[in-house]
Design brief:
The complex is a heterodimer of chains A (464) and B (461). Chain A has 464 residues and is of the alpha+beta class. Chain A has a six-stranded mixed β-sheet with strand order 1-2-6-3-5-4, with helices on both faces. The termini of chain A are far apart. By secondary structure, chain B is an alpha+beta fold. Chain B has two domains: 208 residues, 2-Layer Sandwich (Cytochrome Bc1 Complex, Chain A, domain 1); 190 residues, Cytochrome Bc1 Complex, Chain A, domain 1 (2-Layer Sandwich), CATH 3.30.830.10. Helices cover 39% and strands 16% of the residues of chain B. Chain B has a six-stranded mixed β-sheet, with helices on both faces. In chain B, helix 4 runs parallel beside helix 10 and helix 13 runs antiparallel to helix 17. Classes of the chains: A alpha+beta (464), B alpha+beta (461). The interface between A and B is large, with 119 and 115 residues.
Chain lengths: 464, 461
């Protein structure tokens, strides 16, 4: 072992010598000229019952992703029905009027895939990704699931037990606790503010309730089927027409309007002896329909939304207070929030907040340099290409503009619009939409520490 | 319940599938037989292994450098050092100061990350295609040498300690079972120590440790480079030679013995978790040697036992008995069945309710295993092969080229043969019902098993 050490030290000296002789630092090679990027072409059609379909041929891998996205979800639950949508989604997987769970899962496995039913706030998604030759058959299976689900009462107790277990486990994590409280404060008694049910609520659900939820909220008018990848277009269109034409039109799209609350409330949740504090700091912000939304996104990327961003550079790469800080814009239908989330060392909770406030204030008072902004703009343009370079990403972009009723130009002009944002605009957006003194703060951590640490936040709030 | 708002800045944007080359007129079985990925493989004079694979689906390119140093063989008094060192590779080199590497990639429209695994540490970026030369230059630059200050080291010690806190110490089921199980199942220190590291060991790391580690392991003759995407082979080769060609090889230390003895007795452990409020169980079996016929059989057994909702354990434990809402499992929780080189475990885990006894779960596991030891048919194998093929396409086509680059770099590093990725499907097709039975009988023995149970100590609110 000693010998090996000597060898490596000798090698190190040699290296140092070689590279010191090159006095000047090398500049990275700039690279060539950008290649063309066009959004993949889509084919859109609609059945008489209102179901829309969007087909995109993409890539060369002999697989395709199919997603039926229905504009319903937790948004349509009432106050004592939280996660009833989830139970409904789980029940839909338990077989149809003609096929058992086992038959369906084996059949789809034989296509090289799985069927997923995922319940979100504004969307329920029934999806699968299978080998190309089976895509038309997968479309038929999905149609059967959404049109003829058995919703079997005998499975309800088991699924409720699963949901209760999941609830208990999720609520033991500090990030989930912080998230639940943050949305409660901002969205109050709107469904967006109801993140978790109580165990008693889940106990009260029945097959009947799930069936009612299903009947009321699922139908062709609220739905779009996306097929992206390599597939036989004629066969897939035929499968969509054959299997979905008789689906009931169902209810119109209907999202109960939400009004987020702007409040500088501080919420603390005690987590005894926790080595870190989970911080969520944020406020309501512009929605994707706003003309300044692009400028808001650029500002977010520069401030906290990318690894090279100012907040991350500061509290992670300079101070070492945290591992995974990030900021994001979360969009629900008609409303949006901006927030920064980070798990910071308990004893540096106050300093972390002070540094975040400093970065915000600085961007409010000084325009970013052109160079820094251009770097962020190139990053956003580059990641936009990546987002559109895989079937799941393509569907997610298309569903985004559909859900938020945005013009096609949101995607087609995106790169151009990214580069149109100026340094002055970023500063102005920060002034108008990132007022530290207006932000809601949620802390999950050791209360003994937090009572002390919170002082720095209160001082930071007073700075104008 | 996809409401999780976690979204870490350096992770990739949409973890979905597919970028690929090949024929698109697929006719069931025939399609798979003709489906190949182009691979160009060669070595530089200094020993660097280079694997290139074109894919012009999108105007992007993935560049990945894999060093043959994972946490298995990190120094014994420096647990967690391989991973801490991974962080140092972003802290500055001869030509790029702190944050400059990250900014170089992001400001050119790319994404990047690094990770530490059992047998390698990797660094990769996905860039717009026309920035390939920039990426090659930057990876070569940090292979040439680092310029780390005490300040940077102290900073990253802080970051890594926070990483351990957020992923393990302040998290219910933190480290379960991915970090825990190797420590219970394995006997050899190399396979059985805490890979994230004791906080004390992390704190005691010094600048000279960083230098020694770099000079011992971070050399071209201990690395592979994979490039996947929209680029020209000749041009890429020129840049690779230009920027990596002059980096001197190093004298590598002899490889320590990382072998595990044959397990002869079932082991069972209980770990208290003061943050968790539901019990959980993981069970692990030692794997057959990598690339043996039994290893490929285990790949299919994994599909039959735990992958997908048609799998035996899903049908028994989730759908049948309702002990849990979901079960995870697989070969190598820190990667997949291809990207490691050494002893490995097959494992599965689930969270359940306190009124269920672990033995009733194990009863179902034994039943499923017994079924595989006795009753596997060719039809079962065909189904497992289809699932495997579909999964392979995702691996080879997904993550913007990073999935394919991972296989190329791993197979170059461990087997000196990246084109192996085109033969995997055939290896799985060779598996017979007899081989499955034989493999299940030897490797899914209860005496080859380690069980870890989480005893939850948090109050249920």
């Amino acid at each position: 072992m000693k010998n090996a050490l000597k060898i490596t030290i000798g090698f190190l000296l040699c290296l140092t010598f070689v590279y010191q002789s090159e006095a000047q630092k090398q500049t990275p090679p700039a690279g060539g000229t950008p290649k063309d990027f066009k959004l993949p072409e889509k084919k859109v059609s609609q059945l008489p019952n209102g179901l829309r379909s969007t087909l995109v041929q993409y890539g060369a891998v002999p697989k395709a992703e199919v997603q039926l996205i229905i504009k319903t979800g937790n948004i349509h639950e009432s106050a004592n029905e939280v996660w009833l949508a989830d139970l409904t989604g789980l029940l839909m997987k338990e077989g149809t009027t003609t096929k058992t769970f086992k038959e369906i899962s084996k059949k789809v496995a034989g296509m090289g895939g799985n069927i997923n039913v995922s319940t979100g706030m504004d969307n329920v998604t029934i999806s699968g990704s299978v080998l190309s030759e089976f895509v038309p058959e997968l479309v038929r299976v999905i149609a059967d699931l959404v049109m003829n689900p058995a919703l079997p009462a005998k499975e309800v107790d088991r699924l409720k037990a699963d949901l209760k277990r999941q609830l208990t486990v999720e609520k033991s994590g500090p990030q989930s606790q912080a998230t639940e409280r943050f949305f409660q404060i901002v969205y109050k008694d709107h469904p967006y503010g109801r993140y978790y049910p109580t165990a008693e609520m889940i106990d009260s659900y029945t097959a009947e309730k799930a069936k009612n939820f299903f009947e009321k909220n699922f139908g062709a008018k609220r739905s779009v089927i996306y097929v992206v990848g390599k597939f036989d277009e004629v066969e897939v269109n035929k499968a969509i027409n054959d299997s979905f034409t008789s689906w009931k039109a169902g209810a119109e799209i209907d999202f109960p309007a939400a009004t987020p609350t702007r409040t500088n409330e501080i919420a603390m949740i005690d987590r005894k002896d926790a080595p870190q504090t989970t911080v969520i700091l944020g406020l309501p912000t512009l929605t994707p329909k706003d003309k300044d939304y692009m400028a808001l996104q650029v500002t977010n990327s520069l401030l906290g939304g990318s690894f090279g961003s100012r907040i991350t550079s500061n509290i992670r790469e300079d101070k070492g207070y945290t591992y995974s800080p990030y900021s994001t814009i979360q969009n629900r239908k008609g409303v949006s929030l901006w927030y920064e989330e980070a798990d910071v060392t308990s004893e540096h909770t106050g300093e972390s907040l002070r540094e975040i406030s400093k970065e915000i204030k600085k961007l409010q008072t000084e325009n970013p340099s052109k160079e820094e902004l251009e770097g962020i703009q190139r990053y956003m343009a580059g990641t936009f290409v990546l987002q559109n370079s895989n079937p799941g990403g393509i569907i997610s972009q298309l569903n985004f503009i559909d859900l938020h009723e945005l013009d096609e130009s949101y995607l087609t002009d995106r790169v151009k619009n990214i580069y149109a944002v100026t340094p002055e605009k970023v500063s102005q957006i920060t002034k108008d939409h990132f007022k530290y003194e207006d932000m809601t703060l949620v802390l999950v951590g050791d209360k003994k520490q937090l009572d002390q640490q919170i002082k720095m936040h209160k001082d930071a709030q007073k700075l104008k | 319940m996809n409401k999780s708002i976690k979204n870490k800045p350096i992770t990739m944007i949409a973890m979905a599938l597919l970028i690929f080359l090949g024929s698109c007129d697929q006719k069931k079985e025939e399609a798979s037989n003709t489906f190949k990925v182009p691979v160009e493989y060669y070595k530089l004079k200094n020993g660097l292994k280079v694997a290139l694979s074109q894919d012009k689906t999108a105007p992007t390119v993935a560049v990945a450098v894999y060093y043959n140093i994972g946490f298995r063989i990190e120094p014994k008094n420096r647990t967690g050092f391989a991973h801490l060192f991974e962080h140092m590779m972003f802290q500055g080199s001869q030509n790029l100061g702190k944050m400059e590497f990250i900014k170089l990639v992001q400001q050119n429209g790319g994404i990047l990350n690094g990770s530490t695994r059992f047998d390698f540490t990797n660094y990769f970026e996905v860039m717009p295609a026309h920035k390939l030369e920039t990426a090659i230059w930057a990876e070569a630059d940090r292979m040439k040498g680092l310029a780390i200050t005490q300040e940077n080291l102290t900073n990253q010690q802080g970051v890594v300690k926070n990483e351990v806190k957020v992923n393990v110490l302040n998290q219910p089921y933190g480290g379960f079972p991915w970090l825990d199980m190797p420590q219970y199942a394995n006997e050899n220190w190399h396979n059985a120590h805490n890979f994230y590291g004791d906080l004390k060991d992390l704190d005691s790391a010094k600048l000279e440790d960083v230098d020694n580690f770099f000079n011992t392991f971070y050399a071209p003759n201990n690395a592979s480079l994979a490039i996947v995407g929209d680029f020209e082979i000749a041009e890429a080769k020129q840049w690779v030679e230009k920027y990596f060609g002059e980096i001197p090889a190093s004298q590598l230390p002899p490889k320590p013995d990382i072998s595990e003895p044959r397990q002869e007795k079932e082991k069972r452990f209980t770990k208290e978790d003061k943050l968790a409020n539901k019990p959980a169980i993981a069970f692990a079996y030692k794997m057959p040697e990598r690339n043996s016929p039994e290893y490929f059989a285990m790949g299919l057994i994994d599909q039959m036992l735990v992958q997908g909702e048609d799998s035996k354990l899903y049908l028994a434990l989730v759908q049948g008995k309702g002990y849990t809402g979901g079960i995870s499992g697989g070969i190598n929780y820190l990667g997949n069945m291809f990207n490691y080189s050494g002893p490995m475990i097959w494992m599965a885990d689930l969270i359940y309710d306190a009124n269920v006894s672990p033995d009733s779960i194990l009863f179902e596991v034994n039943k499923a295993v017994g079924d595989i030891q006795k009753n596997v048919t060719q039809e079962d194998i065909d189904l497992a092969v289809v699932k495997m093929r579909s999964k392979l396409y995702d691996d080879l086509g997904g993550f913007f080229g990073i999935g394919r680059a991972d296989m190329l770099a791993s197979f170059a590093l461990f087997d000196d043969d990246p084109s192996r990725l085109n033969t995997l499907e055939d290896e799985f097709k060779k598996v017979t019902p007899e081989l499955i039975k034989k493999t299940a009988t030897e490797y899914l023995r209860a005496t080859n098993r380690t069980i870890l149970i989480i005893d939850p100590k948090a109050e249920v609110k």
